[in-house]
Amino acid sequence: MTKRNPDYDFKWCPGCGDFGVVRAVELALADRVTRLGEPIENTVVVAGIGCSGNLVHLQEGPQPFGIHGIHGRTLPIAYGVKAARPELNVLVAAGDGDFLSIGAEHIGPAAKRNMDVTCVVMDNGIYGLTKGQASPTSAFEAVTPTTPLGKLDDAMNPLELFLALGVNYIASMLSTRPRDLAATIGEAMEYPGFAIVHVQSPCTTYNDTYAALKGNPKQGIEPAAYPLPEDHDPTNREQAMAHATSGRIPVGLLFRAPESIPMYQRLTGARERAGQREAPDVEALLSTLEI
Amino acid sequence: MATDLVVRFAGEGGQGVVTAAEGLAQAAARVGYHVQTFSTFPSQIKGGPTWAQTRISTRPVLAAGDQLDVLVVLNRYAYDHHIEECRDDGIVVYNSGDFEIEDGNRCIGMEVDRLARETGNPLAANMVMIGAVAALAGMPAEYFTDFIRERFTRGRANDAVIIEGNIKALDLGMDTVQETGLTVAGLDSPPLTEGPRVLMRGYEAASLGAIASGLDVFVGYPISPATTMLTFMERYLTGDGSYVGQSSSEIESITALIGAGFAGKRAMTSTAGPGLSLMSEGLGLAWMAEIPLVVVNVQRGGPSTGLPTKTEQSDLLTALNPGHGDLRIPIIAPGSVEECFYAAAHAINWAERYQGPVILLSEASVAERQQDVPRPPLSSIRPESRVTVNGSEAIDGDGPPRRYRGEQLTPFPVPGGPGAYVANGSEHDEYGDTTHLPKWHLQMTHRRFGKLALLEEDLFESEGTEAQIALMPWGGSKGPSRAAYLALRDRGDLAWYFTMFLNPLPPALLEELRAKELVLVPELNYLGQFAGLLRQQGVRAEAITQYTGLPFKERFLTERIRERLEARTGELVRV
Predict the structure, then answer these.
(1) For chain A, is the Cβ count within 10 Å smaller at the N or the C terminus?
(2) Do A83 and B243 touch (CB under 8 A)?
(3) Is residue A183 in a domain?
(4) Domain B199-374 adopts which CATH fold?
(5) Substitution target from A57, A58, A70 for chain B, most B beta carbons within 10 A
């Protein structure tokens, strides 16, 4: 199958980082099908609102299930899917505005529940679909239509935030390397707990950061992105925090908690201990109320 | 002898007035009386004016009663604020350890706290009060001693001591009253009731109805007066395959339900006014993407934080149109504790049947009160399951599956199975992909509203239908309205209607209402919300409103209705 719906006419701008991300998601899901033998219909992609969320309609090839819901609520929707059907593979795809601004309140609870969901955060440092307003990750002093005097708020550091909130698996990646990204998304989906793959996915129309990320020696631009060194120990929270707050953008697996018991296992474990593995007996409950 | 005994306990939060009222109700129900409790308190844990009431009757109780046979008051404030509701021949039992009533000849002073301390258990103050009431109404001590033994036999080392202390407290209360020689009219013997009965609260009935109807997932956020349902579910919705969780907000609750409903499960939450407001965008998504789920909204006084622990019926318009844009959420509003059970089961069935969100509109006074009701037979609950996609239907030729095909309900694709699609909150085409073309917005709008016809059921009560003026309350105003109707029924000029299905209304009911000269709608809000909705649907409806945070009183309603009936007679004479 080529495009799943020939009438669907949404387009990303030429050069948009999200092309690399959708390709990576397709590769990661296809790999999961071949390697684990899991049908594609076992995956649910929960997409946010914004340019990035359209990924759910633009995936080529065999289709997973999808939810394209409301702005900022990918995580609680994914929570509901996972609570109801722990055996499903749930992937969240959202932008920085959706995930880090309106939806930021949901990251902490998702991390603390350790729900077994993988999030692909497509960070372009701007609100693209509403035409270029400042987002939490836009640079301090960035001039945009909503910050004509320059952005007065400090830029949010998402990796530092995720570490502080106790996210158990955190990777920082680039949309320009879809195969690396696919491999990381694949690993994150297999990690038993809450995982965030944060992707620098530049917006060529409103916030083109390709040069800043890669650097440009001719223009004297030092690359903002750097690969995590080979000796980086992703199980070491302090090391991860040092890279997250280095002032540059580390690329690779930043943090992976070695111990991770996902939401569903916690519930079944607690129910096992409390003797609550059996469904409720309504007749018996009514009998306790009988006069 | 009397058919009814209405007792109110009033004091401060933490003084055990609610426990006293419920203990009295439980003991009376145990010996075969019909009972109903009502309690009201401020939004604080300790202190603040609190009162609770029990009505014991030889007939099924419709309302908590507005004339007190016995008023038990623990402080001066309570006496001053409740004495007007005591019958002329009623009796006041007051806490003489706290204040004195100088001019009362039907008042009994009792040092409640000192008597409780004498038993060695200061917590037994409520049993002293119950003892006093029992003696006044001539109820035998055994009614209560058996109840105390049952209630406090909890397998703990000090059970015997606590039981003994409570029985002693009961005796002290009874003795104090018997010394005065005062009594109220003794209750007739308990009636012979047929079949097993249960004593339950509205939220327990709703929770059990939902579980009986196959509930899988419950996610909620604490909020008065809806938290009780969440805690009930946390405790009793057990078993592999089910999930209960506390969310971080009502936004999280509703969107989690969307995820669970999308994943093929029956999902429910409970909330109240402010939470319903936060759920508005999510309810719109569920309507738009056609996801089954149930929100139980336990109404309290609003707007904003309003009256968190009081009762009101002011969320009807919000429940009907919680979100922006064109939508109309199906609503079921139970009128009694018993109806809560069937309403919750029905709400889950409706969500499955039409593949969309349903609101169960309860209210504080219905959810929290205790009442004896016939034990609901589980055979009367028939859980429905949404129509789902099976292998062959999902394949639309060689093209992608068309989840939203046509203007009628279509089979629901369940993740893990065939028919993968995108459940989309943006307007979409039949595949679920976003589109802004007018033809799709037209088709999908017709589709979403058209499915409501699947919920039209002609289930309603009616009586005296030849009369041209009708009384039709909704929700928890049913009880006092029914009592008023019974008081006026013999006039022969008033019809009675009731349904818990507010949207869509039973079509045959709507037709009958449209033929009436006037439909009177008692409701606890300022706007006359339901009367307004009926007028929109071509019914000559007029509201009888009250907005005090308390339920209607029977006498108030009876008089208001009588005035309206007689005004009409006057008009006819003038014509």
Answers:
(1) N
(2) yes
(3) yes
(4) Rossmann fold (3.40.50)
(5) A70
CATH number at residue A152: 3.40.50.970
Q: Do domains B199-374 and B461-566 have the same CATH topology?
A: yes
Domain B4-180 has CATH 3.40.920.10: yes
Name B293's bridge partners. B357
Q: Does residue A7 lie in a domain region? A: no
DSSP per-residue codes, B322-387: -SSSS----EE---SHHHHHHHHHHHHHHHHHHTSEEEEEEEHHHHH-EEEEEPPPGGG-------
Instruction: Give the dihedral of Cα atoms B549, B550, B554, B560; nearest 10 deg.
Output: -10
First to last CA, chain B: 47
Q: Quick one: residue A15, left, alpha or beta (phi over 0 = left, psi -120 to 50 = alpha)?
A: left
CA B268 to chain centre: 17
State whether residue B267 sits within 8 Å of chain A by CB: yes
Burial A69-107 (b: 16+ CB within 10 A, else e): bbbbbbbbbbbbbbbbbbebbbbbbbbbbbbbbbbbebb
Number of folded domains that form chain A: 1
Mutate to test the interface with A, among B434, B436, B437, B439 (most CBs of A within 10 A): B434
**What is the distance in angstroms between the Cα of B129 and the nearest Cα belonging to chain A?**
22
Contact A57 B240 (CB under 8 A): no
Residue A6 lies in a domain: no
The verdict on pTM exceeding 0.90 is: yes
- The CATH class for the domain spanning B461-566 reads alpha beta
Give me the interface pTM, i.e. the ipTM. Answer: 0.97
- Is residue A13 situated within a structural domain? no
Neighbours of B406 (CB within 10 A): 12
Which amino acid is it at B476? Answer: G
Sequence spans of domains, chain B: 4-180, 199-374, 387-455, 461-566
Using alpha carbons, select from A78, A57, A73 the residue that is nearest to residue A10: A57
CB environment A261-282: b (16+ within 10 A), e (fewer)? ebbbeebeeebeeeebeeebeb
Q: In tens digits, what is the pLDDT along chain B, a chain of 575 residues?
A: 899 999 999 999 888 899 899 999 999 999 999 999 999 888 888 888 999 999 999 999 999 998 999 999 999 999 999 999 999 999 999 999 999 998 778 999 999 989 999 998 888 888 999 999 999 999 989 989 988 898 889 899 999 999 999 999 999 999 999 999 999 988 999 998 889 999 999 999 999 999 999 999 999 999 999 999 999 999 999 999 999 999 999 999 999 999 999 999 999 999 999 999 999 999 999 999 999 999 999 999 999 999 999 999 999 999 999 999 999 999 999 999 999 999 999 999 999 999 999 999 999 999 999 999 999 999 999 999 999 998 655 556 666 788 999 999 999 999 999 999 999 999 999 999 999 999 999 999 999 999 999 999 999 999 999 999 999 999 999 999 999 999 999 999 999 999 999 999 999 999 999 999 999 999 999 999 999 999 999 999 999 999 999 999 999 999 999 999 998 766 654 43
> Could you give the maximum distance between any two Cα atoms of chain B, in Å?
91
| Chain-chain contact of B434 with A276 (C-beta, under 8 angstroms) | no
CA–CA distance, B256 with A75 (Å, rounded to integer): 9
Residue in A with minimal Cα distance to B232: A285
